[in-house]
Structures are given as C-alpha cells and as structure tokens.
Amino acid sequence: MRRIVMSVWVLLLSSMFASAGPAWGQTPVCQQDPTNPYVPASAACVPGGFPFEIETGFRDPATANNFSLSPPGARSLAMGGAFLGLADDATAAYTNPAGLTNLAVGGSEVAVEIRGAQFRSSFADRGHFNTTPELPTHVTNVGQDFEDGIHLGEAEGDTTGLSFLSYGFVFPGGLTMALYRHELGNFQSSFEAQGLFNDDNCDPPGPITGPNGEAAYRQPEGRECELFRVQPSRSRIDLEIVNWGASTAYAFDVGSASNLSLGLGISYYEGAIDRRNETFDTCRFDTFDANEPLDPIGDDPDFPCTQSESRSRMPGGFYGPADFSLDNSFTITNEVGNDTAFGINLGFLWKFGREQRFSVGGVFREGPAFETVQTTFVAADRFDPAEDIKPPVAGTLTVPDVTGLGVAYRSADGKTKLSFDWNRVFYSQTLGDFTNNLGEFSDAYTLDDVDQFHFGFERIVLVVESLFVGSARFGAWIEPDHAPRYTGDPNDTDGDLLALFGSEPDDVLHLSLGFGLVIKEDYQLDFAANFSDVADAYSFSLVKFF
Amino acid sequence: MKGTQIVSLSLLMLLYPIGPLTAQQADDEVNELHNELLNETTVMITVNFSKGQPAEYGTGVLLCQEDDRAWILTANHVFAGKSTEPWKQIRLRRIERATIAFYRNSPPAVEADTAFLRKQMKFYTFKPEDLLLISVPLTQRLPSTASLSPPPSDADEQTVSAHGFWKDRGTTWARADGELVGSRMDSSKFQYHTGEVHEGFSGGPLFNQHGELIGINLQRVPGEQTPDGADGEWYGKAQTLNNHEVLSVIDKWVPAQCLENASQMSELAFFVYKKAMRAVSIRRWPEAEELLRQAIAQKLVGGGSVHLEGMRYTRYLPHYHLGLALLNQGRYSDAIREFDRSEAQGVIQDDKRYKKLKRERQKAYEGLRRQAVVAR
Fold first, then answer.
1. How far is CA B316 from CA A318, B243, B260, B301, B342, in A?
2. Residues of chain A with pLDDT under 70
3. Is residue B214 part of a domain?
4. Among B221, B254, B287, where does a domain finish?
C-alpha cells in the first residue's frame, strides 16, 4: 500500500512540478525567475516530480518557465535592470512607455537586441536521503544506492535569440510612438535523473514503548526505515512567448522646470509551450503486488519487486541504473499550449530639478495568461487500470503582473547617470496554476509577491565631438526567493513530503556590466553581461538614429 | 573681472547719483573706477629680440591666477615678431628679454631672459589663430583677472572698449572706446570695432560694456575706401574668443576654476539647446526659434557636444537649427543669414549636416524668389 501512496504522489507531483501539467503553469516551484530569463527560480524540486527540502536548494531548468520581465536592451541589462526612472531610449516602449517622450529630443530610432544566456541549474540526480532530515540515512551500498546525501546534476542550457526589436518615432506636435517585438520567454532545456533512494517511516532513535510500556516498533525488527526510490525521470521543455507591442507617450510641462510624461502600451502576446516529463519503473521485471512492503536488503520475500531480476542491479531493477527505454515508461505527461493574450502597460515619467537632472518613473505591466492542455499516460499493468490514462486537463500558464517605481539622476552634461528601481512582481497570481491539482492540499500553500531592487550606474568616458561617445556601465540587483511555501500541518499524512517545500533558498545577487559606443551620432552599439551564481547572460544591441 | 567686482561697480553706479556729486561727476568717477578695474586685468608686454630684429610692444590680459602661476592671453605675434605670414612660430632662443609689466607695478614686472622664458614660462599656441596663452610664475596676488563672456547675439549695438599699451605715449595704459561694427563681421573669428587702437594694443583685451572679455585685439585695419580713392575709417580687429577652437585651448590649459563662469554659460546654452532640439524634432518652429536665440545669447559660436537623451549627443549648431526654424516659418532671408553664419563659423563644414544646410539654404533662396514673384 505504501508503494501505491508513494507512486500516486510521484505521479501527482510529477504532473505538477516536473512535467509541468496544467496546474503547473508557470508555477515558480521549479521555475525560473519570471523577471529574469537567465536565472532559474530558487525553488527545490526533484526531477521526476518529487519535491523535498535540501539546505542548499536547487533548481530545475527543464521544468522552468523562463519569462523575461526585466527591461530589454543591452544598456539596461548592464545597468542591472534599473531603468524605470531613466527610460531614455527606445526600449522604454516596454520598460516604461512614458519614457518614449525622450525620443522627441533625439529623434526616431530603430533598435535591435540579441541576447544569450548560459544556465547552470542543478537538479537532484541520485543519492540517498531521509524524508525526516534530522534522522540518519541508511545507504545499502547495493547497486546505485551507494551515495549518502543528494547528488546534484547540473543541467546546462543555452539560449540565444532576437530578444527585442523596435521602431520609435516622433509625430509633429510631440506625440511619440513605438512598435516593438519583445521575447518574454525563449527557453529550451532537458535532462535525465537516475532517481533518489530515500528512507521513510523511520522509527525514532532510542527505545519505543507501547501504551503499556512494552517494546514497540513501527518497522519490523531489524529494520529502522522503509526504503523507497524516486522513479528515474526524463524531462524537457520548449517555451516561447513573444510580445508584439505598441506604445505611445506624451509630455506635459509642469511649471517651468519640470515635465510629466504619460505612456500607454498595448501588447499582443503569443505563447507556445511544449513540456514533456517521463518517469520510469524501477521494478521493470516485477509483477506488482500492492500489499507487499518494501525490502531494503533485497532478499526479503516480502519485497515488492518479487522477481529476482527486479531486485537486481540490472538496468530497470530497483538497485540498478535507470532504464530510460520507452517500454519501461511509468508515466508520460505532456503539456502543450498555443495561445494568445492581450496585456497593457501604463507608465509615467516626471523630470524635475535644476536642468531636469532628476526623474521619477513608474510602471504597471500586465502579464498575460495562456491556456494549456495536459495529458498524462500511465503505463499499462502497473497500477489500477482505471488510472492508466488520465483525461486531458485544462490549465493556465500565467505570467505575473509587475509594477515598479524608479528614481534617476543625471549630471548636467549627461555624463553620469545613477538609477535605482523597485519592482514588485505579483507571483501570488501564479499560485492557482500550482495548486490546481493539489485538491485538499490547495490551501496548504502560499506564494508571496516579491520586491526586487535594482541599481545602475552609467558614465560617459569618451566624447569626441560628433564622432564617438563611449560609456561604461555597472549594475546590481537582488532576486528574492519566490517559491511556494507549505503552510499546512507537517504532521499530516503525506504532510512530511509537502512540508519539504518550506525550504528557504538564498536570494540571488546579480552583477552586471557593459559598455556602449555611439558612432557619428548615427549608430549606437551596446554590450552587456550579467553574472550570478546560477546563470550568465550576454547581450548585444544596435540602435540606428534618424 | 570677478562677480563681486561687477556687483560693487553696479552698486556704485546706483548710489552715486544720490550723493553730493553732480550727475556728470558721478558718471566720471564710475567710469574711472570701471577703467581702473579693467586696467588691473591688463599687462604690458615688451619683447626684445636678438639679431637686430625690432622689439615688439604688446598687451596681454590676465585670465587666471592659481598655484603661484598666472595665465595671460595675448597675440602670438607679440612674441613671434611681425611676419607677412598669418601665423609665425615663436623661437624663444631669439628672444633676449621679455618684460611683463602689471598695472601700477602691482605686482612688480616679470623680467624674463632667454633661460627664464624657456624654463619658467609656458607658451600655448592657437595655431593658426594669432593668439598666445602664457603661463608665468607669479607668487604675489593679482588684484583682478578678466572674465570671459560670449558676445550678445545682436552685436551691432554693443559698446566695447579696447585696453592696451599705447607705445608712442610711453609706459601708460590707454583705453579706446568704440562700438562693434556689424557690417564688418565677415567671419565669426574676428570682430571689428571703432575703438582707436594703436601700436602696443596687440594682444590687448576687448571688453564689452559689462567689462567682460569678448576678444583680443590684433591689429588696426582700414575700412572701405572712399569714392575718391582715399582710405576710409580705420577699425580695430579683434580675435573672437567665443570660438570653439579658441575655447578648447583655453579650456585645456587654464585651470577650470578660472573658467567657471564661461563653463556655466556653455552649460546653460546646452540645456536650452537641448530643449530647442525637442522643439525642432516635433516641429514647433516658433518655440524652437525662441529657444535657439536664447542659446545663442549664451553661446554664440557653434561647436561642442550637447547631451540629448540616453547616449545621444549632438553637436552644438545653433545658427543652423535657427535657420531651419526660420525657413519653416517662411522667413527666408533670415534663414539664409543664419545658414550663412553657421557656415562661416566653420564647425558645420565637417559635419554630416553640412549637406543639408546647403539644401535647406537653397530652399530658402527658392522661397525668396517665389516671394519676389508674388510681390511683383
């Protein structure tokens, strides 16, 4: 029976977390930070769909949704994404549409950006852990069960593409407008995990007594815990979200020394997601008997893998290497979505102070939601035949809304710029995607909105009149953890599993730098790099001025 | 002249009329005080050459004193000697002695022999302009230094005064009042005025009515001939300082603290110009014209990089854009004049907008022709 419970959880959680079922949507548990396409989220999840706690935390890129809510453009990337208060180039069309009024000073421009990223995301590959972390593990040293602790695999993903393209222009009278294409998400990744061994239902240390003082044990004599193995898994994801947008802005004089710009943007989003997760049997040669307990030794007649091959170290066996062949599939879950949605951007930019050296900008960006369909298949003759094929389930892929406020300072000669942004990302909007399939456990999770802080600096280091303008830039920003938190009773049945979502991975610090060069007042080239513990990103953009 | 001195002078001008003096007496005293202040910023320069070359007598203007050095602006030919060429290289080994005398000998004159010239003094040329910047060791504090100022946009009405060393009258300071001559402004590099300058005024300052330095006197030139063939009126010819090439040399070598006033003027001009660029971009031509005239009042001569937005900088070309603004308002002759001024300043001639200037000027001429046809 324990195996059934375990397997159901594996299946359920697999569909939610690993195979990205409809309830998964863009659930942050195993996803990348929606505000940064290059940094997976700080959530803990195990490929194959088994969530649990580890102190270091690790991320699952293959199951991640990779949204890019951070400002487009190499210049803003180099400045740590602190761009709301500046918004002084064509990328303002997305970042803060009110900033488009700045084009009225310089004139129309076309901008194109190519952005690439390298991920170094980890996932739980193999090893042995105890579901009650404070209790010791019982590594058997049989076959693949030889590592104490969790061995993290590293999934590396590369993505490069046209991330931003815009044309900003100025109408007589002062109205400015921009048409643009922005990649909100572009991500591909895949990995295979061997599956972890784990101890569960362990007897606590020391003697245990029954109601009358007699010796009592939960486990049979000579055994402290039951042994399980998370099913090996294989996952892949292909996600693309494109934003076709149009923004417009107008500036109003406020007194003699300041002006206020208001901006409005409309976005038409195209979202395409294709996720697949497979889990594989570890008793491949077995005839299933649901009433049998597990045997950690391998020679127990009650061991559920009743045939000797299944208890063996052969591929597909309980202790053996994972068998990723199709005929050993345990579950296959696909999530597919091709949908469109609309969203709006609202922004303001207020310039004030002597020679308008200070500015404050604010924005609200509405994230789209896409419908998806998840189908799950369970291999025949493994469980109850009624569970073999689950009916398709409709789901949602939600991109959270973002609002933000930024302040900026520029020196009179424009050579020094400082910018500081605060962004609030409404991750709580995505909790529904995550809990849809959790049934009675839906209320046991919370997901908070997070506040991100960005800082940027730009210094013009070279001005050769009418020939060259060169600049150096630096930036930093903090990416807070934004994983769902289990707030239910950890002593509930299966609560010990769910409670493992309570991990507190560290916030991620991003450092960025870059430089730019304007050639003959006609072209601007920008390069930027963003570094963090989990990913590096590179960007190149070209702007043509008219 | 420092700001405090200008304020003092202004207060004097306000207070004197209510004193016991007559109005004429008060004016005379104020003028005298004004003259004293300007003379304090002026030095007499005498340069004796070897090998029989005749001595040069000239004047210089004190721009700055800092770190026991003084910076003096004068004419290049005062130290290089007369030449038929527009510009001549200074050869220090041919100078036996140079004397720099301060007003009322406070501080005492600097007597420089060849060794002193080569080791203690520094010379910065403005080739091909006939200007020279000298750095002289000077520990004693100077009572005053001159303030740079761009001339106003409507130069025709400006009263000016040339200060210098009138050689034929001995070692005395002289002042020649006059007015700028607009009709002779064939180039933004030079200004012509009616002040009566003489030998010894070379390198001396040309001040506007506010006592601000607007040029360096170079020579005396004849005006147009009279119908009977005789020479007409004589004019003083001064090098304009509000010229990009000139200011760039001064900016480079004179301590920034001394040029604070000028840099603030440029900063203001650039800020107004940036606003004007927005007006041009959105085709608000009357607003653009007004702003560009404001910018020109602060900085007449084109050149310099103006920050627009983001990484965008543009060259300061106020007359060119003023021409555009006037052209788009149908004021063709005014537009042509501004295009011509922009071209005469020279900066635009190596700029990508020069072709457009020619095209737009051609449009202005065509507009003028159309107006003439309609008028007929």
1. 78, 12, 19, 8, 10
2. 1-69, 206-211, 214-223, 285-311, 379-389, 433-442, 488-506
3. yes
4. B254
Amino acid at B139: T
Look at residue B11 and tell me if it is in a domain. no
Minimal CA–CA distance to B75: which of B176, B189, B202? B202
pLDDT at A495: 42
Minimum CA–CA partner of A523 in chain B:
B312
Residues from chain A contacting residue B270 (CB–CB below 8 Å): 413
Chain A environment of B315 (Cβ under 8 Å): 465-466, 521
> Are B248 and B263 members of one domain?
no
- Note the pLDDT tens digit of each residue in A440-491: 556 777 788 889 999 999 999 988 887 899 999 999 999 887 777 777 665 5
Residue B284 touches chain A, beta carbons under 8 Å = yes
Q: Which residue of B has its CA nearest to A108?
A: B281
Q: In this prediction, what percent of chain B has a pLDDT beyond 90?
A: 29
User: Would you tell me how many other CB atoms lie within 10 Å of the CB of residue B155?
Assistant: 19
**Closest B-chain CA to A544:** B312
CB–CB contact B277 A414 (8 Å)? no
Q: Please tell me the predicted confidence (pLDDT) of residue A33.
A: 30
Residue A473's pLDDT is 96
pLDDT tens by residue, B290-312:
999 888 877 767 788 888 888 88
Q: Is residue B31 part of a domain?
A: no
Q: What is the pLDDT of residue A249?
A: 95
* B154: Cβ contacts below 8 Å, ≥ 6 apart: none
The pLDDT-based confidence of B133 (bands split at 50, 70, 90) is: very high
| Mean pLDDT, residues B181-199 | 74
pLDDT value of position A30: 30
Chain B interface mutation, best of A465, A522, A542, highest count of B Cβ atoms under 10 Å: A465
In what side-by-side order are the strands of the sheet with B56-66?
B110-113, B95-102, B42-49, B56-66, B69-74, B129-137, B122-126
Contacts of A337 (CB under 8 A, 6+ apart): A271, A272, A273, A370, A371, A372, A373, A395, A397
Amino acid at site A322: A
Last residue of a domain, one of B234, B254, B274: B254
Show the domain range for A274. 2-282+327-545
| B277 chain-A contacts, CB cut-off 8 A | 105-106
Helix (H, G, I), strand (E, B) or coil at B117: helix
Of A75, A105, A521, the CB nearest to B278: A105
Task: Give pLDDT, residue A178.
Answer: 95
Q: What is the pLDDT of residues B242-268, one digit of tens each?
A: 777 787 788 788 887 676 656 666 777
Which of A86, A170, A412 is nearest residue B267 as measured by Cβ atoms?
A412
Task: Select the residue of A173, A465, A471 nearest B311 (Cβ to Cβ).
Answer: A471
Question: Considering only residues 307 to 326 of chain A, which have any Cβ-Cβ distance to chain B shorter than 8 Å?
Answer: none
Residue-number span of the structural domain to which B123 is assigned: 40-254
Q: Give the chain B residue nearest A102 (alpha carbons).
A: B309
User: B54-102: per-residue pLDDT in tens?
Assistant: 889 999 999 888 878 999 999 999 999 877 777 888 888 889 999 999 9
Q: B222-230: which pairs have CB atoms within 8 A and are 24 or more residues apart? A: B223/B184
**Are residue A313 and residue A376 in the same domain, yes or no?**
no
Cβ-Cβ contacts under 8 Å, A460 against chain B: 311
Which member of A86, A102, A170 has the closest CB to residue B282?
Answer: A170
SS3 string, A472-516, reads: EEEEEEEECCCCCEECCCCCCCCHHHHHHHHCCCCCEEEEEEEEE
Q: Does B302 touch chain A (CB under 8 A)?
A: no
CA distance A440 to B109: 99
Sequence-ordered list of residues with C-beta below 8 angstroms from that of A60, at least 6 positions apart, any chain: A17, A18, A30, A40, A43, A45, A46, A47, A121, A123, A155, A235
